[in-house]
Specification:
Layout: E1 6-7, E2 14-18, H1 24-29, E3 33-34, E4 40-47, E5 55-62, E6 69-73, H2 91-106, E7 110-114
Antiparallel strand pairs: 1-2, 2-7, 3-4, 4-5, 5-6
């Protein structure tokens, strides 16, 4: 998956784009870690039961120039994309995803647009 300026996950109510006001120190404040290549990564496990270890990994990677990003929700292996927005049984996971993304929007890392 290539870096993109705006991403809309399948069946998600919003699309997300990099904020023009994004800052490196804000990324570090929100627990993004810089990898060997210089990109910023945030990894979270979306879980129905907290600390159960059962859920879907969410990975957000922002390029080192802060101009584009990748956003994926995968199965445990990290190989197949998972659509948590399709089934009503994933409502808790959807709420946790929206909560995390809203906190990143509030910190001026992303902007969101309703679809």
């Amino acid at each position: 998956m290539a870096f993109e300026k705006e991403i809309h996950l399948t069946d998600c109510r919003f699309s997300y784009a990099i904020s023009p006001n994004i800052k490196k120190y804000t990324l570090r404040d929100t627990t993004f870690m810089q990898n060997k290549v210089g990109n910023y990564e945030l990894n979270r496990l979306l879980e129905i039961v907290p600390n159960s270890g059962e859920g879907f990994p969410l990975k957000i990677t922002i390029n080192k120039e802060l101009t584009a990003f990748k956003l994926t929700i995968t199965d445990k292996s990290g190989l197949r994309l998972v659509n948590i927005f399709k089934k009503e049984e994933h409502k808790i996971l959807q709420d946790k995803f929206y909560f995390l993304m809203d906190s990143l929007v509030e910190r001026d890392i992303f902007t969101k647009t309703e679809i």
